[in-house]
């Protein structure tokens, strides 16, 4: 579970921004929207609002980069490679400083606080601390290539400092060398689902895998039926194909080599079934359609997400979705948020999304500390403010107040019609 994430001097972010999953002292939805873990109370979900180019996606991108660098810096980089990190470039002093990343998270009964500072040349600082019971103690601390390690807390990490390049994380190196605590953290970050914009198709195989599993296939079908998509059934069929059917997509200089090793292959196709009626509105059978050719973009997105949503709920994983509302009806988006906020499901899964859908700013759905507004200052630097910081009354119409500009995070758009008035066409 994420306790908080903090990032500074990264892309559109100058001064550090913190997304805090620690629940505030407000009382609403305390029986449903919160995770009680030992003495820590965390939010199950969080929504980011802001106008286009406010920096919502950059915050989610920062989490994804943080995760990627932890999982890959020891293996993807050579000693001379630059680190692919971008500072805030609209302020001269910031462009010369390292970017900052830090997350506090809970695995089992241990709370970790891990972070690093890096520019394109090297990791300047890196730290890992852990809290058991109440006391936070360092596991390792790094300044440039000087790394101070508590070997009792980081067993089997002896001499790995010498194997750590300046452009790699010590945590990543330790994970590669089978240090159990590093592996545990590395695997936890790898378990985070991070869906960028419109790339939900990349997760379809998770849904198909569950649909092929007798234990979960009925649950997948009920997820589809309960969403009122008009689909009465869905099936998977194997479709064989030949080399000649795909050769045009293969570079000509590679065709002979691939043809020699090509056997008849299979791919999967989704078939959706819709009720067929007679003129008396009686169901007389099922009409079958090729899913990708006949169903809407919204239906396909929902299907692609079902598998990872179920997996996250069952395995207590974190789901991060950019452009959450794209191609989804507001009521379907609400249903997904309710799933994570449910008091009926015992899970420690968390959902973090960026959205423009103001219908979700609903006091019957969310607490005030679950809503963040993102906007930019005059320098173009993003900042984040939780709704609870505005201290609105519980009965306030949050969505209306947001659109009226009371919480910031909305665009101030000039009159576009005037561009077509006399004298403005040139």
UniProtKB/TrEMBL annotation:
Taxonomic superkingdom: Bacteria
Signal peptide: none
The name this protein goes by in its record: ATP-binding protein
GO molecular function: ATP binding
Keyword terms, alphabetized: ATP-binding, Nucleotide-binding
A Pfam family recorded for this sequence: AAA_21
Keyword presence, ATP-binding: yes
ATPase AAA-type core domain ranges (all copies): 47-362
SUPFAM superfamilies in alphabetical order: P-loop containing nucleoside triphosphate hydrolases
């Amino acid at each position: 579970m994420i306790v908080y994430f903090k990032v500074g001097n990264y892309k559109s972010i100058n001064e550090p921004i913190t997304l805090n999953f620690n629940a505030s002292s407000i009382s609403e939805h305390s029986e449903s929207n919160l995770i009680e873990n030992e003495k820590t109370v965390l939010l199950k979900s969080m929504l980011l609002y802001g106008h286009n180019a406010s920096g919502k996606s950059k915050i989610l991108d920062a989490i994804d980069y943080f995760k990627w660098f932890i999982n890959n810096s020891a293996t993807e980089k050579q000693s001379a490679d630059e680190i692919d990190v971008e500072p805030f470039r609209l302020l001269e002093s910031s462009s010369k400083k390292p970017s900052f990343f830090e997350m506090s998270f809970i695995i089992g009964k241990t709370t970790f606080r891990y972070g690093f500072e890096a520019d394109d040349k090297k990791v300047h600082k890196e730290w890992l601390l852990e809290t058991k019971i109440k006391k936070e103690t360092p596991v390792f601390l790094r300044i440039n290539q000087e790394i101070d390690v508590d070997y009792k807390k980081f067993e089997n990490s002896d001499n790995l400092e010498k194997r750590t390049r300046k452009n790699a994380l010590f945590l990543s190196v330790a994970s590669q060398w089978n240090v159990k605590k590093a592996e545990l953290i590395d695997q936890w970050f790898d378990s985070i689902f991070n869906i960028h914009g419109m790339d939900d198709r990349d997760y379809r195989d998770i849904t198909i895998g569950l649909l092929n599993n007798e234990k979960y296939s009925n649950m997948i079908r009920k997820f589809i039926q309960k969403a009122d998509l008009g689909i009465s059934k869905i099936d998977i069929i194997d479709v064989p194909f030949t080399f000649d059917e795909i050769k045009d997509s293969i570079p000509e200089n590679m065709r002979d080599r691939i043809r020699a090793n090509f056997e008849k292959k299979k791919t999967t196709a989704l078939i959706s079934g819709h009720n067929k009626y007679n003129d008396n509105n009686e169901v007389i059978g099922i009409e079958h359609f090729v899913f990708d050719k006949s169903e809407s973009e919204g239906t396909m997105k929902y299907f692609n997400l079902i598998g990872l949503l179920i997996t996250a709920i069952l395995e207590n994983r974190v789901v991060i979705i950019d452009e959450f509302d794209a191609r989804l009806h507001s009521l379907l988006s609400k249903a997904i948020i309710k799933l994570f906020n449910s008091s009926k499901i015992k899970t420690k899964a968390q959902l973090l999304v960026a959205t423009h859908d103001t219908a979700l700013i609903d006091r019957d759905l969310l607490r005030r500390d679950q809503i963040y507004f993102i906007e930019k200052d005059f320098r173009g630097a993003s900042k984040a403010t939780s709704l609870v910081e505005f201290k609105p009354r519980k009965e306030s119409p949050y969505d209306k107040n947001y659109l009226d500009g009371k919480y910031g995070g909305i665009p101030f758009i000039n009159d576009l019609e005037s561009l077509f008035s006399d004298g403005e066409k040139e």
